[in-house]
Amino acid sequence: MLVHSRTGRRAVQVLFIALFLPLFALPLLVVLAASFSTSWSGPFPSGPTTGHYASAVRGDSLQALITSLVTAVSASLLALAVGTWSALAAAALGRRGRRCVDALFMLPVAVPSVVVGLAVLVAFSTPPMLLNGTRWIVILAHTVLVTAFAHQSVSAAIVRLDPAYEQAAAALGARPSYVLLRVKLPLLLPSLTAAAGLCFALSMGELSATMMLYPPDWTPLPVRIFAATDRGSLFTGSAVSVVLMGTTLLVLLAVSRIRTKASYR
After folding, report:
1. Which residues of the chain have pLDDT under 50?
2. What is the dihedral of CA 6, 10, 11, 14, to 10 degrees?
3. pLDDT tens track for 103-156
4. pLDDT at res. 165
5. Which residues contact 60 (CB under 8 A, 6 or more apart)?
6. Which pLDDT score, from 0 to 100, does residue 240 have?
7. What 3 state SS string does the chain have?
């Protein structure tokens, strides 16, 4: 830590707890408590039950969870491929070229996601690329929204990469494709897995653009949560939210283990 005195460290810890609990932990605990309740008329919930989870893990909610997982995995893989390619290409450009590429990929993040959803809807609602009303337009919108984070993560890793490895491989007669596949990408693997995890988490929680694009047969779980709370089913929506958080956390933990193994390699 940057604070070396015992009193200073305790003050920082107290400040962290004072900010963390009300801003981050308390809202999540409220959602968790509501998911096990049937009513909440006083300071604490009442009527403990697990019935909300029975409907949250089957039927339409289960199908929505599968839809979210397929959408998030597909968008993350596409974003990782495009973001890695763009980061590698930008690294070979000059400073002005890199800035232009960075600005291009950060543009979807600089505007509200509902604007991105509208842009995708307008662009792909007429031939020859008619995607409106299909699952592919949802996956495409999620890919556009999360590619910027993959691009930035890989770009930052490339800057920190020691060029001696590539130079040694090239000096030994390795072709550029071999250097890329067997030297550069393995060294970037920890950053690639971190970028994939970030893209997955952002896609799992995306709502604004999804609301404009999703067809009836491809409803992600955040849309189900919004619909449940909009109808007044706050406790059912809380249970579905806990399922969404738990699933996302499990996937991120798996990605973290892969990242740790890649770092040791």
Report:
1. none
2. 180
3. 888 888 888 999 999 999 999 988 888 999 899 999 999 999 999 999 999 999
4. 78
5. 219, 224
6. 93
7. CCCCCHHHHHHHHHHHHHHHHHHHHHHHHHHHHHHCCCECCCCCCECCCCHHHHHHCCHHHHHHHHHHHHHHHHHHHHHHHHHHHHHHHHHCCCHHHHHHHHHHHHHHHHCCHHHHHHHHHHHCCCCCCCCCCCHHHHHHHHHHHHHHHHHHHHHHHHHHCCCHHHHHHHHCCCCHHHHHHHHHHHHHHHHHHHHHHHHHHHHHCCCHHHHHHCCCCCCCHHHHHHHHHHCCCHHHHHHHHHHHHHHHHHHHHHHHHHHHHHHHC
| Angle, vertex CA 43, rays to CA 42 and CA 44, nearest 5 | 90
Q: What is the pLDDT, as a whole number, of residue 251?
A: 93
Residue labelled with tokens 């770092």: 263
Letter for the amino acid at 225? Answer: I
Pull the structure tokens for residue 35. 């998911």
Backbone angles phi, psi at 220, to 5 degrees: -70, 165
**Predicted pLDDT of residue 4:** 66
Query: What domains does the chain contain, in order, with CATH numbers?
Result: 1-49 (no CATH), 56-264 (1.10.3720.10)
